[in-house]
Description:
Blueprint: E1 4-10, E2 14-20, E3 27-30, H1 35-45, E4 51-53, H2 59-62, H3 65-72, E5 75-79, E6 91-93, E7 98-101, E8 104-110, E9 119-123, E10 128-132, E11 135-136, E12 139-140, H4 148-159, E13 166-169, H5 174-184, H6 189-203, E14 211-212, H7 213-219, H8 228-233, H9 241-254
Helix pairs in contact: 4-9, 5-6
The structure holds zinc ion (ZN) and fe (iii) ion (FE).
Residues 56, 58, 61, 114, 133 line the site of zinc ion.
Amino acid sequence: MAAEIRLFPCLSDNYGYLVHDPASKATASIDAPEAAPILEALEREGWTLTDILVTHHHHDHVGGIAELRQKTKCRVVAPHDKSGKIPDVDLRVRQGDVVKVGSLLARVLETPGHTLDHISYVFDDEKALFAADTLFSIGCGRVFEGNYPMMWDSLLKLRVLPDDFRLYCGHEYTAANVKFALTVEPDNAALKARADEVARLRAAGKPTIPTLLGEEKKANVFLRADEPSVAAALRLKGASPAEVFGELRERKNKS
Ligand code: ZN
Ligand code: FE
């Protein structure tokens, strides 16, 4: 039986995600922005929370952990990180570890840059990538704790996943990301198509997530920092991809 994935808004622009295994009835929440909407979604579906898979220590991803763990006795899985910034952790994971959610398997990729502890979860059989604040649709996270080469390496780790994998990211930032990306690649046909789609979805009050990784590879300028045309658009011909990526990130920060 295939896994079921539900997405719902949390806080101002976060997404909550539930991944449910019909075979074992296990259910994982990817991060826990706040408890109430996650408890409501569980109630709506008639599912019981067994696991929280945490991506990084920012408050808008861990704020609901304590209440959810207390109310459901679920297991909390979090990045291996000595700082202890994430409360109530039962299992710490690192690159290459595989987490079981019932009979579902989630592979851990370390994707530092936004924070040093940031990890992403890949459900290979479900063709689903949960990248939180590393990779957004047509964008990427701000680089708060790492540096640009580190974040670029993390994006490359995600970019090698197959085109038919779906990206589930931490925030609904797509419209603003599209606006910025068009300033760099106004003639990118895949980006223009995505811009139309995003405008249509947002006008209808619908999420722009999930999105296909294959589409992101064509339309997300942050995944295209090693395209000569992107370097040229930034007047950085001959610069390294990490430098091009850094310039993109700086411009986005100021946009
Ligand atoms: Zn964050
Ligand atoms: Fe966030």
